[in-house]
Amino acid sequence: MALKCIIVDDEPPATRILENYIEKVSFLEKVGVFNDALKALEFLNTQTVDVIFLDIQMPQLTGLQISRIISKDIKVIFTTAYPDFALEGFELNAVDYLLKPISFERFYQAVSKLNTEPKMEVLSNGNSSDFIFVKTDGKNKFQKLFLDEILYVESLQNYVCIHTLKHQIITHSSLKNVIESLPEKHFIQIHKSYVIAVKQIESTDSFSVFINNKELPIGATFKDAFFERIDQNKM
Q1: What is the CA angle 232-234-235, rounded to 5?
Q2: What pLDDT was estimated at residue 57?
Q3: Chain centre distance of CA 103
Q4: Least C-beta-crowded within 10 Å: which of 31, 34, 92, 213?
Q5: Taking a C-beta distance cutoff of 8 angstroms, is the pair 24, 170 a contact?
Q6: Distance between CA 53 and CA 7 in Å, rounded?
Q7: What's the per-residue H, E or C state across 4-36?
Q8: What is the rounded CA–CA span in Å between residue 147 and residue 141?
C-alpha cells in the first residue's frame, strides 16, 4: 500500500520538482500540496498522512515548528536551501534532510529510508521470450514486464529505472543485471547510463537518440556499435 504524503513548501518550483519525483516512486501517493503552513495543519487535523516533505524557511510557521506540532506518527523529510538547520532537523527525528536543489537520486535515497519499497530484482528468462519478470522480495510476487512496452532503461547509480509505455519501475539493481535479462537483438546500450529499445527509436543524430519525446545522449564508448546497428536498418 502506498504511503500518503503531502508537500509543504512556499516555493512553487520546489513543489513541482517534488511532485514529479513522487510520481516516479510506486510506494508514494501525493494527497496534498500546500504553500501555506496553516492550511497544511488544517489538512492534517482531518486527514491521515504518512509522510510530509517539509520546507524549513516559511512565513508564519517554520518547518521546524510544524514538525513539533504534528503527530509523531507522521514521518518528516525536511527540504531546504539552508544547511544550517540540519542538526536541529535530525534532533527532531526527521527521516532525512534534503538540500535544494534536490536530485532524484538523493530524493530516492531519502524515501528508501521509509522501509516500504520492497527490493526488486530483474530475473532473466534466457532472452528467449517476449517478457521478463520483476521479482518483489518478501512478497513472493512476480511482476511480468513485456519487452514491447520498454522504452529505455536508465541507471541511477545505485538504482535502475525501467521506462515503459505505461509507467516507470525503479529497482534496486544494476544496469548490467538488467542488460543481461534483455535480448541483445532488441536492445542496445548507447551510454553508460542508458540502454534503449531499438524499435522505440523515433530519430537520432550524431549525439542523441530520441524516444517518446525524450532526448538521450550517445556516449563516445558506445557510438560506433550503435551506428553500426543503425546502418543495418538503413534504406
Answers
A1: 135
A2: 85
A3: 10
A4: 213
A5: yes
A6: 5
A7: EEEEECCCHHHHHHHHHHHHHCCCEEEEEEECC
A8: 19
CB atoms within 10 A of CB 143: 11
Amino acid at 163: H
User: pLDDT at position 172, please?
Assistant: 67
pTM beyond cutoff 0.90: no
CA distances 52 to 15, 78, 202, 235, Å, are 12, 8, 39, 54
**How far is residue 134's CA from residue 124's CA, in Å, rounded to a whole number?**
9
Of 165, 63, 55, nearest to 100 by C-alpha is 55
Alpha-carbon span 105 to 75, nearest angstrom: 20
Q: How far is CA 199 from CA 28, 54, 184, in A?
A: 31, 42, 12
Which strands form 168-171's sheet, in the order they lie side by side?
A: 168-171, 159-164, 150-156, 194-197, 187-191
Task: Give the CA count within 13 Å in the CB-facing half-sphere of 203.
Answer: 4
d(CA 181, CA 154): 14
Helix (H) or strand (E) holding 52, with range, is strand 51-55
Q: Which residues of the chain have pLDDT under 70?
A: 1, 83-92, 115-129, 134-142, 157-158, 172, 234-235
pLDDT value at residue 137:
47
Residues 6+ positions from 65 with CB-CB distance below 8 Å: none
Q: Which residues pair with 191 in a beta bridge?
A: 194
Provide the 8-state DSSP code for 215: E
Cα(223)–Cα(220) distance, rounded to whole angstroms?
5
